[in-house]
Each structure stands twice: as C-alpha cells, then as structure tokens.
Amino acid sequence: MRARIVHVIVSLLLCPCLFTRVHSEQDALDRSTANEQIDIRGILECRQDDVVCGPIALNCSGDGNTDVQTVLTDLANMTRYTGPWSASSLPESDIYAAAAQFSPPGVQSSCLSRSPGVSASCTQGCVETQDIFAKTWDVSGNAICSGKYPNGPGVESSQERGTVTIIVLNECRNIEYGPPWMATVRDELGCLWALQSAATAMRDYEAWLRNLKSVYWPKGWVYEEIIPTTNETKTAYLVGNDCIIVQLRDSNGNTWQMYDYPAEGAQSVLTNLSCYKMTQSMFIDDTTGESMDGETVTSLGVLQSMQMILFLLLFAYIA
Fold first, then answer.
1. Which range has the worst mean pLDDT, 26-35, 121-130, 293-302?
2. pLDDT over 60 at 317, yes or no
3. Who's near 165: CB < 8 A, 6+ residues apart?
C-alpha cells in the first residue's frame, strides 16, 4: 500500500500537465519566430503553367454569415477547421487551438469554395467535413506561416504598438461586404485590407468604433470607414490550385484580409516579411497556464507550489 501511494505522488510530480497548457491561436502567432522560416517572396506571382492566377472570385453559392464562428487549428499539420460554434464551449485540448471570430456588420456572407487539396475543377461535394468535439466542422484551409510587420528588434508581440501580425493561409473563400459600413486600412505601400472579424463580441456600432479607433497601426497606415452602396466580394489570390489569403492581426486582435493586391513585382508587406512556419511548439507555453481559448487556468507559480507540497508530503510519508 505504501509503495502504491509513493508511486502516485511521484507520478504527479513528474506529470507533464503540471508544466504545459495549450494557448490561444494569437499566443501561438506571437511565438512563431522560433520556427522554420518560409520563403514567400513569390507567393503571389503567377507561374507560366498556371491556367488561373490572380484575385478571382471563387465558384460557390455561399454558406451564409454567422455573427460568430470559431477557427480550430490542428496542431499536428496546421489544418484549419471552421464552424458556427463558441470557442468557450470547447474542451481544453493539447491537439487543437481555437480562435473565436465575431463578424462586423459589413460582412454580408462568407463562401468556402473547396477544402485544401480538392481540385479547382470540383463542382460538387468540394467542402470536406470533420467531426471534432462532437461537432461537425468544415475543413477550410491550411496555415502556411506568420510573421511580424514591420520586422525589427524587440518586436515580441502583436500587441506591441505599431506592429501587426501577418498570417498567410491557403484557403479558398470569398467574403462579401456591404451596407451599413465597411472598415478598411491602407498600408504604407498602397495595399488595402478589409476588416473581417474581431476577437471579442461588440455590442453596437459605438463599441466597434472604439475598438477600431484605438488600434495602433504601423507608421504610414491609414484607417478609413467606407459606406458601400452595393455588395462587394473580396477574394483569395488564386495561384494554380491554391488560394492564397493574406490576413493581419492588429494590436486589438482584430483580423483583416488583404483585398487590393500589389501589382506583380511591386513592393508589399510580403516582400521582406520574415514568415515562419506554424508548428505545434508555437501553441505550447511552459511559463504560464492557459486554456485553448486564452483564459488563464493555473499559473506556473501555483503549479510549482503544488509540486512543492507533494514533495513535502512524499518526504514526510517516507520519513
């Protein structure tokens, strides 16, 4: 009996769960600079054998718009899944990371044309699904890499003033914008970005306005509100069978999508971006304890105290 009790205490002392927790998607992006760098300089360039190339509207009927959806990322292969589920309703996991997305009023609809790996010539059943956490998700895309802009020493977090996180995806999706308003930002090189979602729910227009007006943009970036008179479709950039989407996260955690792409060969935020491959290690932190939705559950200090108590109990029991 004594040997069994000692075994239990030692197992608890050595348990990895006392050291690591799954972080939110944003925390992972902030740690991406520790990983393999991806060369994306020509990612928006057409190749000679590409039949289709450029920002072209995808062939799909649309899957409607939801006020909130969650993007779930498989940490093993960076496959992204989307579904109309609340991130806070999902269990903790060391396999997936989740990010809630709350749509602004200007987003009228979203249209996922096909899952990654499905041929561009597909006409039926092009969006694959996967059951995860007893819920059905669309297999929506793959995360390619992420990096900070502008690059520079001391940039440790997307929350730092004057920096944004750039995320490059392979995802075949149209987003339709329309009245009552549409938020845009023009970067210093002339490309336009449209607001796609916020990380938290906004009660009304005033809440959206306070959120967007408090963003710290890189030098030379200009925020603007547009009142569209008709619906406008913002598309991915098609290169062969791939659909490249370039997103950014601002200092408030909002997600924007590039929709006015640079001319071929022109300078853009991607030209000199250090874009790092997203891997599982980005989502694991050994200094704090956070759940997959980013809420702190247990600090490392508390866990160390628990380990000390267990060690003292073991010492006293053996003595």
1. 293-302
2. no
3. 26, 29, 30, 146, 147, 148, 149, 158, 248, 249
In contact, 249 and 167? CB cutoff 8 Å = yes
**CA 35/CA 275 separation, integer angstroms:** 9
Contact in structure between 255 and 248 (CB atoms under 8 Å): yes
Question: Phi/psi at 303 (nearest 5 deg)?
Answer: -65, -40
CA atoms in the 13 A half-sphere facing the CB of 227: 1
The encoded tokens of residue 255 equal 């997600």
Say which residue, 51 or 291, is predicted with more confidence: 51
pLDDT digits (tens, 9 = 90+) for 249-270: 999 999 999 988 877 667 888 8
The 3 state secondary structure assigned to 181-214 is CEEEEECCCCCEEEEEEECCCCCCHHHHHHHHHC
What are the two backbone dihedrals, phi and then psi, of residue 115, each rounded to the nearest 5 degrees?
-80, 160
pLDDT value of residue 120: 82
Per-residue tokens: 251: 């200092």
**Residue 319 CB neighbour total at 10 angstroms:** 5
Q: How far, in Å, CA of 204 to CA of 260, rounded?
A: 28
Cα–Cα dist 269/166, whole Å: 8
Asked whether residue 237 carries a pLDDT value surpassing 80, the answer given is yes
CB atoms inside a 10 Å sphere around CB 165: 23
In three state form, how does the secondary structure of 74-119 look?
Answer: ECCCCEEEEECCCHHHCCCCCCEEEEEEECCCCEEEEEEEECCCCC
Residue 268 three-state SS: coil
CA dihedral 215, 220, 226, 230 (to 10 degrees): -120
Task: Evaluate whether 143 touches 68 at the Cβ level (below 8 Å).
Answer: no
In whole angstroms, what is the distance from residue 106 CA to residue 231 CA?
9
- Closest by alpha carbon to 139, among 121, 156, 126, 148? 126
